[in-house]
Amino acid sequence: MENLIIIFLFFLPFSSAYTRPNEHFINCGSDFNFTGNDDRNFVAIVLRVHNQNKRHLLSSGFELLSNFSVKNSPAGSPVIKEFLVNIDEGRFKINFIPSQGSNIAFVNAIEVFLAPESFVPDTAPLAGRRRGSFDGLRSRVLHTVYRINVGGATITTDEDTLWRNWIPDDQFLSDPTSAKNSSFFSGEPAYTSGRANEYTAPSLVYKTAKELNVEDNTSRQFFNITWSFNVSKSSRHFVRFHFNDIVSSSIDSVKFDLYIYDKFDKLVYPYNETGQLEVPFYFDFVVDSDKSGVMNVSVGPRNDSENQMAFLNGIEIMEFMKESSFVVPEERSKKRTNLVPIVGSVVGAVVFVVGFIVAMVMFLKCRKRKPLSEKTSNMSPLDLALRISYYEIEQATKNFDSGLLIGEGGFGRVYEGLFRGKKVAVKRSEPGHGQGLLEFQTEIVVLSRIRHRHLVSLIGYCDERSEMILVYEFMEKGTLRDHLYNRSSDVEKPYFARSDLSWKQRLEICIGAAKGLNYLHTGSDGGIIHRDVKSTNILLDERLVAKVADFGVSKFNLPDAEHSVDVKGTLGYLDPEYFLSLQLTDKSDVYSFGVVLLEVLCARPAVMASNRREEVNLAEWGMLWLRKGQLEKIIDPMLVDTINPNSLRKFVETTEKCLRPSGNERPMMRDVLWDLEYALQLQLIPMNNGTFDDSTTNASLEFSMMPVLHRLPSNSFPAVEEEDATVLSVDAFDVTASDVFSLLSVGEAR
C-alpha cells in the first residue's frame, strides 16, 4: 500500500497576542470524518478519482513536487511532505497534476493553518566561502527536509505547539562515540522576548541536547560532534540551529564553534546571547549544498573557553523550492471547496494514503474578519459527522456505570469513558436540570466550528432516545478551582486553600485560558462571547495545560444594532454592566476573567456567605483591599516568599483593569494576555540583592516586599454554592452596580 503525507502551514504577521489560529484538516477521498490521536479532526472531502500515481504539485507559482511517486516508500509508512508557503492575498490554489505518461494525481488529506510571521526571518546570513546575507527569504517556498530533536526522543504532533514532528539525531551522527545525551532538563525554558519562543520549537527540544563525550578538557580540543544529512545536490537550504545551555554549571563558562561543511564557522557564546543559563536561542543560515549531496554540520570546543564543551539542541533544514514555468491545464470543473481551493484529481483503486498538507503563509495583506450576525435562535444545522450512537455511548461508559461518575454540573452528570480507544468525558443531561435543547445545540455548533490548543475539543454528541449527551476530550487534572481550594465537611469553614500550584504554574494556566478566550473573541468566525467564564469552566490536562470549556450559553458576536440579549452567567462572575444594561460584548468575558484572576491570587470562591457584606463578593472584596494598598493581606498564604513583587504588581494591575465598572475602560483579551505573559517574564527574573525593578508598573500598586501573609478572614464563613449560568431577568434599571448582588436570586442550575 502506497502512503503519502504532505504538510502545509499558514503564517500571519506576528503579534504579542499571537495564538495558534484556525486550522483546516481535510480527509480527501473519504465520506467520513476522522479524528487523529492528537485531536486533529479531518473533515471528509470527496475529490474526483482517476488512475495512476505520478504527479506534479504546484502552489503559489512554485513547483513543490515534480514527477513525484510514493511507489518505493516502505510498506505501511506514509511519506510526509511539508512546505512553508508565502502568499500575499487571502486565497491560494493548490494544483495536483499528473506527470507525463501518467493519468493520476492524488492526495488523501490536507492540513492548513496560520502561524506567526516571525517563524522565518526575511534576511539570514549566507554560510559559505562567500559571506553576506540573503534577502527576501519570506517570499520563497521552503520544503522541510529534516526537523531534528538533538539528544532527545521523537516529538509527536500533540507535543508541539504547531503540530510538527521531530525525530532523534542518532542516525545522522558521523561518529556516535563522540557525543552523548545530556541530562534531561526538568525545568522550563526561560523564553525571552526577541529570541526563541514556544512556537519556534516545543520546550522538549530545549530540554535535551547532545554534548561532547570526552572526559578531560585537553583531549576535547581535538574532537567535534558531526552530523551528516542527505540533501539535494547543489541546492539552497534554510538551516536553523537551536541552542539552550542546560549543560553548564555556571554562566559564562562555555563558548564553542559551529561549523557548516568546511566553509563556514560561527562562534556560539550562550552568555553573550542571553546573559543567563537555560534561555533558548537559535541561529539561522542560508546554506548552498555541494555536489556530494551530503550536508555536514559540526560543533567543537574552543581554546579560549573555560569549559571545553560543545552542545546542540535541535536542527531544522528546509530546501528552497524553485519557481515553476509549468502551465496549469484548464480546469474541467469550477467547483471549489470552501476551505482551500483544491484543483486536482484523486484516484481510486485501493490506495489508502494518509496525507496532510501544511501551508505556512507569511505576510497576508488582508485578513478579512467575517462578521457573524447569527443569533442562537437561528441555529446552524448540527454537524452530523459528530453524531455518536447511543449504543456506542453505553459501551464507552459501561452503561453509565456509577463507578465511572466523575462529577456533576449544570448540564448533568459527567462520566469517564473509553471511546474508540481514547479516554473521553461524557456529559449526560439529567431531567430537571436547567440546560435545554437550545444550549445543547449551541455547544455543538460552537465547538464544531472552532479548534484551539486552549479550548476543550468536542469529540461528538448523541441525541437519540431524547438524550442530550456530549463527548469531550478527557481533562486529567479536572477544573482550575479544584487546584485552588477544596470543600470541607466543617460547616464553619467549608473551603480551604490548596498548595499544589506554584505562582508560575498559576500564571501559565491563566495565560492558557486567556489564549483560548482571545481566540474565541478574535477568531475567523467573527468572534464568540463565552458568557460563563469561571474557574470551573477552565479545565487542566495531565500537563496542567489550561483549556476553556462549557459553551452552552455562548453567543456569536452580534451587530451593534442587535446586541441586547437575555442575561446569562454565574453568580459572582457576572459583569454588572451587562446585568444592568443587557448590552453584551466581549468585555463581559473580560470582567468574568478578572474575577478568575482574583480567585487564582486569593484561593477563595467568587461568592461566599458572610455577615460582612463586603466579603460576600470576591471582586468587591479584592478591589477594597487594593484601594487600601493592602492587597497582600488577602492573597493565598501558600504563595508567601514565592512571588516576584513586580510580577504580582503587573498581575494585580491587569486584574484591576479587567474589573473596571465600564466595559469601555476594560482591556481587550489580547491585552490581558500580553500583560499576563509579561507578569510571567517578571516572575522568571532572579532576585538581585532582594530587590526587583519594573519601571512600567503603575505607581498606585507599588508596595514593598510582601510581609508574612494572613489567612483570608472570610474563609471562616459558610460559602454560597456556585450556580451555573443562572438566567436573570430585570424589569427596572434604577439600581447601581453595588446593588447587583442583592438583586440576584439563586435559581435552578441550567
How would you summarize what this structure contains?
The chain is of the alpha+beta class and 750 residues long.
Oligomer: single chain
The CATH H-level superfamily of the largest domain is Transferase(Phosphotransferase) domain 1
* Poorly predicted sequence stretches spanning 5 or more consecutive residues: 1-6, 10-18, 21-59, 333-380, 689-750
Strand content: 15-25%
Transmembrane segments: 339-364
Protein name: Protein kinase domain-containing protein
Pfam family, one: PK_Tyr_Ser-Thr
GO cellular component, one term: plasmodesma
Give your account of this protein's structure.
The chain is α+β, with helices and mostly antiparallel strands and 750 residues long. The protein has 4 domains: 1-141 and 321-368, no CATH class; 149-316, Galactose-binding domain-like (Jelly Rolls), CATH 2.60.120; 384-473, 2-Layer Sandwich (Phosphorylase Kinase, domain 1); 481-686 and 712-743, Transferase(Phosphotransferase) domain 1 (Transferase(Phosphotransferase), domain 1, Orthogonal Bundle), CATH 1.10.510. 16% of the residues lie in helices and 23% in strands. It is built from 12 helices and 38 strands. The strands form 11 sheets. Strands 11-10-20-17-23-12-13 form a 7-stranded mixed beta sheet. Helix 5 packs antiparallel against helix 11 (669-684). The protein is globular, with a radius of gyration of 28 Å. The two termini are 51 Å apart. Mean pLDDT is 74; it is low at 1-6, 10-18, 21-59, 333-380 and 689-750. This is Protein kinase domain-containing protein. Its main location: membrane. Keywords: ATP-binding, Glycoprotein, Kinase, Membrane, Nucleotide-binding, Serine/threonine-protein kinase, Signal, Transferase, Transmembrane, Transmembrane helix. One of its GO terms (cellular component) is plasmodesma. InterPro entries: ANXUR1/2-like (IPR045272), Kinase-like_dom_sf (IPR011009), Prot_kinase_dom (IPR000719), Protein_kinase_ATP_BS (IPR017441), Ser-Thr/Tyr_kinase_cat_dom (IPR001245), Ser/Thr_kinase_AS (IPR008271).
